[in-house]
Amino acid sequence: IVMTQSPDSLAVSLGERATINCKSSQSVFYSSGNKNYLAWYQQKSGQPPKRLIYWASTRESGVPDRFSGGGSGTDFTLTINNLQAEDVAVYYCQQHFGIPPWTFGQGTRVEIK
Amino acid sequence: EVQLVESGGGLVQPGGSLRLSCAASGFAVSNDYMNWVRQAPGKGLEWVSVIYSGGSTYYAGSVSGRFIISRDNSKNTLYLQMNSLRVDDTAVYYCVRYIYSFGFDPWGHGTRVTVSS
Question: Residues in chain B with pLDDT < 70?
Answer without folding.
Answer: none
